[in-house]
Specification:
By secondary structure, the protein is mostly helical. It has 6 helices and 4 strands.
């Protein structure tokens, strides 16, 4: 994202969760996050209002808003460390979004 090879998109919910987790677990990293947000901001998407019934069935409840935000942003990839919370194959067919872990994304894009 910083080098312009990909476009970073993050939902408000994920950004809030990231900030809260960093404050609790790695507070020394907050200045780096602020620097990233100021110097190379990702596109920040508002949390969606509704959730598609099909998505409800295929995504764990806690991740539904995040995934719907990705769908609405027309993302090519959805990056998650909790891939087990998603019916990956069914969602990829339904939405066209490739669901990957961070390491799969880096390997797949050869970054």
């Amino acid at each position: 994202h910083i080098n312009g090879k990909i476009k970073g998109i993050i939902s408000e919910k994920v950004l809030d969760e990231l900030v809260n987790n960093l404050h609790k677990k790695l507070p020394e990293t907050i200045p780096n996050l602020k620097k990233l947000i100021v110097n190379s901001p990702p596109e920040i998407r508002k949390n969606p209002v509704g959730i598609n019934l099909k998505v409800r069935r295929l995504v764990h409840e806690k991740d539904q808003l995040i995934f719907v935000a990705a769908v609405k942003s027309k993302a090519n990839y959805f990056v998650t460390g909790n891939i087990k919370d998603f019916s990956v194959t069914k969602l990829e067919v339904l939405t066209g979004i490739k669901i990957v872990t961070p390491s799969q994304l880096v390997k797949g894009l050869k970054l």
